Amino acid sequence: YRWAQAQDRDVMGIWMDIGQPYRHKELAAVQGLGVPVRVIPCGVLREEWNNVPTPENQIIPGRNGLMAHIGSMYGDEVWLVALLGEQHAYMVDKNQAFFDSASKYCSQIFGTPKLVKTPFADRTKADIVRWALSAGITPEVMSRSVTCYDAEKQRCGRCSACGKRWIAMVLNGIHEGHDTNPWESDWMRGYIPKIMEALKTGTHDHYSKDRCEETLAALKLVGVSP
User: pTM of this prediction?
Assistant: First the structure.
């Protein structure tokens, strides 16, 4: 939203309640940051349907396709966040093939040209935090946002979302409190060997070189040597 404002775009924020376990704190954070959003109730995730994401498996199949469809009901250009290093074949609803297909699909069903895209294709999460600081968005404001899969905790420190957020923040000199230190989490312990293997073999079809190097730089700041 702030990125679009900086470009003088006519922007509308949409927040979807699809039944994600962390939805209450997510909406509270968005509203607390003063971002005007249209709240769209769309409870497709339910315990009785056995499709609610868990801390171990946070993948929500088809989520971005649903968001692209709903977004196209309100505008002709829909932005979804897919960062540098995320747009690979393993992320089937974040890569360029998805954005191309979603644009074609939404254009077809609405009968008018629609563009589904990511404005952050060439930026990592650390790059976005760096831009936010340069745009006058303070660390205190950013810390009120939520990037955590835990249903209750603001920053559990154990999930992949917390780990990736920590990397982006600490590389920009922002230190947030977590229930568990992200660099000591089970997720990070499992993640480190994967990025080390990617760097060793030069195979970055899943773990991009930028993301691997950022992770190592963040770990170095807290004295962790893989």
Answer: 0.93
